[in-house]
Design a protein that fits this description.
6 helices; single chain; about 30% helix; alpha+beta
């Protein structure tokens, strides 16, 4: 059962990520190992199964043509994802999505309620039964990292000075939400 409609999901995703160098895309679950589905999304081999918006700042950039279909991700592989992504609880994914909006730091308390509502709307698309995985180093010690100070470390998946994100894995879809700091 869908908890979120297309208009609500797209509006929430745009409010959160439209002004951020980010990647937000969903693809179908088609493999027994969810990492293969995530790779298909990162490599832009699949489209959103519902036809909903994808946020992809690099879709038409020269760097992508020169560096391959997964740019700015560096040659992702199933093994790299297994090594670099750590299980997180859905509430941590909500916090990460909001943290992307606020330059990876603490979220201003006055803006927090609306931003967290938008993040819950975005994740609501995946239903009630999903798992999340992130490359933030705070998740190495457990699935409920303390993000009150923002994101303080990550295991890179790009050539940039910084990148962090998470994937959502549901029975029917995978979502990839990533933020980049190319400076």
């Amino acid at each position: 059962m869908d908890h979120v409609n297309q208009a609500a999901w797209e509006a929430a995703a745009l409010r959160l990520l439209d002004d951020v160098y980010a990647f937000a895309a969903t693809g179908p679950r088609a493999h027994s190992d969810w990492r293969d589905d995530v790779l298909a999304v990162m490599n832009r081999e699949v489209s959103d199964p519902r036809g909903w918006a994808t946020l992809d700042w690099d879709r038409d950039k020269e760097e992508r043509a020169a560096n391959g279909p997964s740019f700015p991700f560096v040659s992702p592989s199933r093994e790299a994802l297994a090594e670099k992504l750590f299980l997180i609880v859905p509430d941590a994914a909500v916090q990460l999505l909001v943290t992307m909006t606020y330059e990876w730091g603490p979220v201003p308390s006055a803006e927090a309620p609306d931003s967290f509502a938008d993040a819950r709307t975005v994740l609501g698309r995946y239903g009630e039964h999903f798992s999340c995985y992130s490359n933030i180093t705070q998740a190495r010690n457990g699935p409920s990292p303390d993000l009150s100070s923002g994101v303080t470390g990550w295991v890179p998946l790009t050539p940039y000075d910084g990148d962090f994100g998470f994937v959502v894995v549901s029975p029917d879809e995978v979502g990839v939400f990533w933020s980049f700091n190319p400076i």
